[in-house]
TrEMBL record, chains A, B, C:
Topology in the lipid bilayer: Multi-pass membrane protein
Transmembrane segment boundaries: 59-87, 108-135
Protein name per the record: Leukotriene C4 synthase
GO cellular component, one term: endoplasmic reticulum membrane
InterPro entries: MAPEG, MAPEG-like_dom_sf, Membr-assoc_MAPEG
One GO molecular-function entry: leukotriene-C4 synthase activity
Entry similarity comment: Belongs to the MAPEG family.
Subcellular location: Endoplasmic reticulum membrane; Nucleus membrane
GO terms under biological process: leukotriene biosynthetic process
Length: 148, 148, 148
């Protein structure tokens, strides 16, 4: 069973490390712009970094959830690749947002699209598993034998 | 094993789609009330929608965690039903909060109660599994044979 | 399989209960300092409690993610112990932050260190599983036979 999960585990771990990196950036920014907790407002440079990290944190659980739903019910390989692309997009988003509010847009759209792909894979996987479990029909196999 | 998880997978997916819907509402509200990121304050109409989404996002990981703990250790069926009720409550919460701060209260209490039910199921499930694994006692079965 | 997971399930449940406790503290603080939603700013006493809860919520998904990655791929026992230490650290963090911004620091560093230990275990576990699954080498066993 582990062989069906270890790729997802590796992407998950990378995702956690990325979040740790973002959190450290906020701590550095707090020092640089002298914004002590609990304050969360300050110069726009600080607020952009703070918001970038907050946004990534907010999406992290959604990402982990669809990564695993898609990986368990559909395909570990495809989900892991999408996972890596998502993390790459989020890295660019964070860097872009740190520089300007405009710079966050392109990578934000990119990572949102990847999330939608993972949601699509999850839906397909859950639907096919439902058919297998409750209707005893393996739609994917039926389709393959119908085509070839 | 998949047949014990696919219901949880379906509810999880629905939860992700609901969060996506809430996020889109915040984007629309940002446009409507001209509140550009990284700003998060604005007219009360905007702030209510923003806080509603933030609150749902904050509870999303808790919800997914208890849904699966309850589903894996206690009962997939009961947990999935509670999951659907929770998502329904959150939808009403978001709609209510968008209209008035008062309007969020009833569905907030409702979804909190459902969370407590899921926490109760999880506790029961973890406790019974502990007894099975470490004491080699199947309490649920003992109880049934004692009663009938 | 359940016996490899029930410890993680128990720590997870404790984590959820701790989050519920923090949320209740924010609700009490809102009443005490008369800060009605959607407002999130108020007297420093309120803001510290609000930020403490927000910070714990933000780290909760990261914690659950590394707890399970470490527990599934490395060791349930060690991960569960680290999980309990983390929750203990977070409890002290919340209490400390409620009293003063300074009071949050020591337990914050402690819980961050525990997170890094869990990240280390996860990395080791994912790496060893990769070797087992794709290279067919059980490094842990090789190491043991080389040593003894």
């Amino acid at each position: 069973m582990m062989e069906e999960l270890v790729g997802l585990g590796a992407v998950t771990l990378l995702g956690v490390l990325e979040q740790a990196y973002f959190s450290l950036q906020v701590i550095y920014a707090r020092r640089k712009y002298s914004v002590s907790p609990p304050t969360t407002s300050g110069p726009p440079e600080f607020e952009r970094i703070f918001r970038a990290q907050a946004n990534c944190s907010e999406y992290f659980p959604i990402f982990i959830t669809v990564l695993w739903t898609s990986g368990v019910f559909f395909s570990q390989g495809l989900s892991s690749v999408c996972g890596l692309l998502y993390l790459y997009g989020r890295f660019n988003y964070f860097r872009g947002y740190s520089e300007s509010a405009q710079g966050r847009l392109a990578p934000l759209y990119f990572s949102a699209q990847i999330l939608w792909v993972l949601i699509g894979f999850s839906s397909l996987g859950v639907f096919l598993t439902f058919c297998q479990v409750y209707l005893n029909v393996d739609l994917l196999q039926e389709l393959c034998s119908a085509l070839f």
